[in-house]
Amino acid sequence: MGSDSLPSKLTSTKPTPIPTNELDDDHDHDDSPSTAALLSFNTDSSSSSEPLSTSNNKPLFIVLILVTCISLSVASAFAYLFFSSRSSSSSSTTTASSATSPSPSESHARPLTKLNRPKVILISSDGFRFGYQFKTPTPNIARLIANGTEAETGLIPVFPSLTFPNHYSIATGLYPAYHGIVNNHFLDPHSGDAFYMGAIDPKWWLGEPLWETVVKNGLNAATYFWPGTQVHKGPWNCPLNFCRHYNSSVPFEDRVDAVLSYFDLPSDEIPDFMTLYFEDPDHQGHKVGADDPQITEAVSRIDRMIGRLISGLEQRGIFDDVTIIMVGDHGMVTTCDKKLIFLDDLAPWINVPDNWVISHTPLLAIMPPSGYSPSDVVAKMNQGLSSGKVENGKYLKVYLKEDLPSRLHYSASDRIPPIIGLLEEGFKVKQKRSKNKECGGSHGYDNEFFSMRSIFIGHGPQFARGRKIPSFENVQIYNLVTFILNIKGAPNNGSASFAKDVLLSAA
């Protein structure tokens, strides 16, 4: 790590574990009381108070026998229909239940058939909003879902729901305040140095990412584009042929083929952990929003890449042995000109010049110079925003970072500016009015918004087939991978029991 004071301060901060996302593995039981009697018959001849006349005994006796026989036949028919219906209902309930939970035969992980130890491929499709998979046929993604485990209503990003903070949270299991990548662009308040997305100085990248953990445990890792992988940290030195430097012009097909080629190496040289990254559909989402036909084509393209990967693994006879974890880093929401807020409109209350603003949108981050009280700035900004005189002002609320909702976990780093503004979904902040018109898409909003969710699909020997699990934050993925690889991980914000809740137990 770097020698500046900020990393040493952050690494001494004890991460706050989040509650376990306990899964309810118990099935509903039929607690209805046992059925007593379907129909009641009184066949006791002594119930009659008057003796039968001897002259009418025989005919009456015959009538009674006939009535009794008919009644018993009717009762038997009703009983048969009742129990048949009940049995059918019970059978349907069992079938529905097994569709969302592992069958008895799926209680244990499936053994490897060709590989000698677990292999994990972690795939990120940038900006793959949950629900995109329903926009167009995605047969290959659907195959992973049908034969694997899916977060039923999506994967929850960390805040801010931006690319670099989330990719590094997935890799480290830490919230941005603890791993140090608090935004796509930010300043070190001590040195004044600026972080940008190509920065590879280890001083920025705190925590221990999966590729470092894997190598530290004596295994092999290979990364094909993932934020932070070019950084030399600990035992990880971005080895030639196993660490590709980011280049957006590399065709997606070449990326998939490179990962597949690792499986042609001698068995003891095959990486145990691999990453694979695609820029789509984030690239299209920013240009056209979340609902444009270009998104549909981008999603289809990603599905074709998943199909290419599956086909390559099948040709090598190892598809069922390899664990594939497919995720996205965040979602996407459509934004247009009518949803703009201009900081210059706050001039009657306070002047917020451009050089105070670290980022405008969708995460408003402000660092006033010394001599200005952050609390006074917040008070005056909120006064103007709530006055009804600032266009769309009610859709922005400004906080001191320590007053942000605790669920955001966004206050424990000096790299986070003292003033943070939270926007309502789809709104954007600009410094001043202009005649430029725009309508596209954005992300970075409160991770509570459903539109910010992405996908999680796990397929492999330790994932139950056809299982749906509740949504969870992406800081849990680090522990999931270390559990599958059976290695010791670094301290993180994930739950220690999460992997045991999600994965099948060892055979």
UniProtKB/TrEMBL annotation:
Matching Pfam families: Phosphodiest
Keyword set includes Membrane: yes
UniProt keyword Transmembrane present: yes
Molecular function as annotated in GO: hydrolase activity
Extent of Polar residues compositional bias: 1-15, 33-44
Keywords, sorted A to Z: Membrane, Transmembrane, Transmembrane helix
Gene Ontology annotations for the cellular component aspect, listed alphabetically: vacuole
Comp. bias (Low complexity): 45-54, 87-106
Region (Disordered) location: 1-54, 87-111
Transmembrane segments: 60-83
UniProt cross-references to PANTHER family, sorted A to Z: BIS(5'-ADENOSYL)-TRIPHOSPHATASE, ECTONUCLEOTIDE PYROPHOSPHATASE/PHOSPHODIESTERASE
Name under which the protein is recorded: Uncharacterized protein
